[in-house]
């Protein structure tokens, strides 16, 4: 009698253990085979696409900034166009005789004027007052001449609207007028453009 009860108890325990094991297996299967939720995958793919697009836009912006800031060397009379659409042209130099009241002039030294044209091909206003120019003649850096009596006052100060152009003259001393290197810089966000004979 005791033996029969013991066998029945063991069989009962085995049955209970078997059921518990079976339930655990069912739970594990249910967990590992959770229902597919398309929204999760689509959201993840959309998020990845947005990140990729942002990275591509950043790469383009970096490339454009590098291109717009790269120096360019050209000849007098040519036009240099920056990637944002701003255009700068420097005409060939002309001999210049400064007035007695000119500032920056060295008496007895040759001088030249340079006609500069800026065209605002960007979508924003451009302030030409930040435009700068420098000249090297032979091996000498030259002085800019300001001569109000001859209308030589440097870059204009009126804002240049998109699509508009302005032409103005600057003057410099010139040790060798036939050998000039003119470097112009439209602003802080631009690198220089260089014009030579």
Features:
six-stranded antiparallel sheet, 2 helices, single chain, elongated, five-stranded mixed sheet, alpha+beta, Immunoglobulin-like, 11 strands, 32% helix, 197 residues
Structural notes for this entry:
The structure is a single chain. By secondary structure, the protein is an alpha+beta fold. The protein has a domain at 71-196: Immunoglobulin-like (Sandwich), CATH 2.60.40.1240. 32% of the residues lie in helices and 27% in strands. It is built from two helices and eleven strands, in the order H-H-E-E-E-E-E-E-E-E-E-E-E. It has helices at residues 2-32, 38-69, and strands spanning 72-75, 79-81, 86-90, 94-95, 111-120, 132-137, 140-141, 144-145, 165-173, 180-185, 193-196. Strands 2, 3, 4, 5, 8 and 9 form a six-stranded antiparallel β-sheet that branches. The longest helix has 32 residues, at 38-69. The termini are far apart. 19% of the residues are buried. This is DUF4352 domain-containing protein. Keywords: Signal. Residues 1-21 form the signal peptide.
């Amino acid at each position: 009698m005791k033996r029969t009860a013991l066998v029945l108890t063991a069989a009962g325990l085995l049955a209970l253990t078997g059921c518990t094991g079976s339930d655990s297996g069912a739970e594990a299967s249910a967990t590992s085979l959770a229902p597919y939720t398309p929204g999760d995958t689509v959201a993840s793919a959309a998020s990845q696409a947005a990140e990729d697009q942002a990275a591509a836009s950043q790469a383009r912006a970096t490339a454009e900034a590098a291109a717009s800031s790269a120096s360019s060397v050209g000849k007098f009379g040519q036009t240099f166009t920056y990637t944002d659409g701003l255009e700068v042209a420097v005409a060939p130099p002309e001999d210049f005789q400064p007035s007695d009241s000119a500032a920056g002039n060295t008496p007895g030294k040759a001088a030249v004027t340079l006609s500069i044209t800026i065209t605002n091909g960007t979508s924003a206003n451009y302030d030409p007052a930040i435009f700068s120019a420098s000249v090297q003649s032979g091996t000498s850096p030259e002085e800019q001449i300001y001569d109000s009596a001859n209308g030589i006052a440097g870059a204009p100060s009126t804002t240049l609207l998109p699509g508009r152009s302005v032409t103005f003259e600057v003057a410099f001393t010139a040790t060798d007028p036939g050998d000039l290197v003119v470097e112009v810089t439209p602003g802080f966000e631009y690198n220089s453009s260089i014009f030579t004979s």
